[in-house]
Amino acid sequence: MSFRTVRLLSLFLLGAVALSSAAGCTNIQVRRAMNKGVNAFKSKEFEQALGHFKQAAAIDSSYAEAYLDMGLTYMEMYEPGSEHPKDKEYADGAIQAFKKNIELEPDNEKVKEYLVNVCKLANRVPEAIDFFMADYNRNPNDVNLVRKMANLYSMAGMTDKMIEWYEKAQELDPGNPESHYSVGVSCWARSYNSPYMPYEERMAMLDKGQAALEKALGLRKEYFEALSYLSLLYRQKAQYDISPAQAVTWRQKADELLAKAMELRNRQLKAQADSAAAAGGGSPSTPAPQPAGPGGQ
Fold first, then answer.
1. Between the CA atoms of 93, 96, 100 and 101, what dihedral angle is there, to the nearest 10 degrees?
2. Of 217, 239, 265, 294, which has the fewest CB atoms closer than 10 Å, so is most exposed?
């Protein structure tokens, strides 16, 4: 090996050692700043904690934990519902910090929950919708993401969009009874919360909800929640149908479904109690009393 080759190799190794040392120094600085931030947070010195977490992020902008802790600190400082400029600043700080963390760790579902929560508290749910819409555009067949979008639209009070997105989930996961249940419940809620909805639109909405809940029950026979909401849906039909005779029919159907739902629920509760008693060595439960029918008869 020539002297020139040895010299070049030595320079390369020295450079590698220097880079490694610099990286190690950076890591030490980041951890030192993070430890100071955590200690300040525990002492409820949130402004100081925030400063240390920002310092860690400035040293290493790819250090995801710094943005997570920064967001959590902003949330501690934020007063939900407040319109004070400082609280708006804290809410914005938390939102931006959580977004940055998610960019660095896109699979961190817990931080996504934090982001949704602070957007909800700050009445900025549309901002969360826009953020997760980008994820949806990249993964349009992710049923869990579609359900998240439906929930966000529900939080934003955008019930038509909520139903639209639950229907997307229904199409993506037709074998899941909860997919159909969510559509049925959403249709009932849309009618229940819209006293001035046009008649034809309401009845079409209730028909859609009925079909969805019946599909859910077809997939899961003992589905107490679906039976209960189907009863409530028929009560909506009874309340708004322009035909008095038809309204009576809907009300009777609602009563029948409610009785079935309560009977099912009592059986489920008894089975749970018996199972717990068997596991604990106790005695099985006695049947729960049946609810009175219409008119208390």
1. 60
2. 294
Q: How far is the C-alpha of 122 from the C-alpha of 278, rounded, in Å? A: 48
Length of the chain: 297
> What is the identity of the amino acid at 119?
C
Nearest to 230 by CA among 259, 257, 190: 257
pLDDT, tens digit, 9 for 90 and up, residues 74-103: 999 999 888 899 999 999 999 999 999 999
Asked if residue 216 lies in contact with residue 223, where contact means CB atoms within 8 angstroms, the answer is: yes
Give the number of other Cβ atoms within 10 Å of residue 48's Cβ: 16
Give the mean model confidence (pLDDT) for residues 177-182.
96
